[in-house]
Amino acid sequence: MVKNQVQLITYPDSLGGDLKSLRHALDAYFPDVFKGGVHILPPFPSSGDRGFAPLTYLEIEPAFGDWADIRAIGERHDVLVDLMVNHISRQSPYFQDVLQHGRQSRYADLFLTLDKIWADGQPVQADIDKMFLRRSKPYSTFTIQDTGEELQVWTTFGKNDPSEQIDLDIRSEKVKQLFIQFFTCFKENNIKIVRLDAVGYVIKKLGTSCFFVEPEIYGFLDWIKELADSLDIELLPEVHSHYSIQYKLAEHGCWIYDFILPYRILDTLLNKDSRGLREYLRTRPAKQFTMLDCHDGVPVKPDLDDLIDTKDARKIVDTCVERGANLSLIVSDEHKAPDGFDVHQIRCSYYSVLNCDDDAYLAARAIQFFAPGIPQVYYVGLLAGENDLERVRETGEGREINRRNYTLSEIGQSLEKEVVQRLLKLIRFRNEYEAFNGDFTVEEAAADEIRLSWKKGEFRCTLYINLDTMRSEIEYTDGEGVLAQLEV
Fold first, then answer.
1. For this structure, is 305 an active site residue?
2. For residue 442, which phi and psi values (nearest 5 degrees)?
3. What is the pLDDT of residue 43?
């Protein structure tokens, strides 16, 4: 059962340098803060993409620690990890065996070779043009060591050619057996939640976008949910798509991500107008994980397609770029907006994109915490970290803008910031106040105000935000009908 309390998102080495330091930081600095759990971004051996090109899920990267460290964190926190269901590293023992022996390898059927898509194995550009691409050429060519033959396999992700991330064929029984092995390992090591990373890309079907292909995607989700249920593991599918797809997932009984909320809040605070946000909060599914920031960026396309005007969105994007953000763009012309708008994600520190305004930042977090769902706080946001422009220049990787690592002493220094202490107070209130397990209401308010309420029995709380001043207040009862106020 997922706990209705705040979770932390962090890399295994971002708070102190390894998993032991992460556990120390949680115990020493945040003992009563992340009662909802800890999402540890991929701690497995990986050949790229900061953990998202895993070699295996049966081991922990030795530089981070071992499974004993994960279990130790799991003693006090529900642990969430990722499973990249779409792909695995080309440095994995499975694909390395294929590179040695080709189709004679016992692992050959794990991978999506082009002849599983086109009968003659020859890619057709007209088919590719319809696909939602993450790179201009969605396949890579390899030379088999034993025979010198060429082998072409699907590679949805990756900057290099050949890619580091090789797509799995989820129709293969061998892939299903591999997933069973991985999930069994998770269960043995006290993993409570698994995020299905890149699950929207697992079905490749000619004539479609090859993204969230219906109804085939539900067959896979049903199969993997049955596996997870048998092990008492919760699933969180990660799908960046048109909002209607998220709603279909919710109707299917899945937890979903609220990838709409971060932009909605940003728009509300920058334009000092709450009408769009309030309408959204009235209609969205409740069974969601909420976030403002993460290791990638603030979602825009395709998550908000048909929900935003691209002319207005350009103004938001321009403001973010002026404040140091950089952009991830849509590759496929067919999937850009008719006017050419092509922003996939705004990559930034959420604190920086709000101009390091403490009140605005706390208002954003308060809205997130009052929105129904399980709130997640990214470690950089937890410490009110700013855009790491130097790291972007050093690496040439735009996402590094919001992936700074902190030493234990730097964590201690960040805790001295007033904005961080205010955030921690807000998290504790969200964790402990009983009304958040009750009924949610979006109150009527002027365009430059926000009023959100929760009620359960005698417990009632209302968040009030003045968008002109960015000041936030929470009025609540103590369970005996006595009113009190919490200034955010």
1. no
2. -95, 110
3. 98
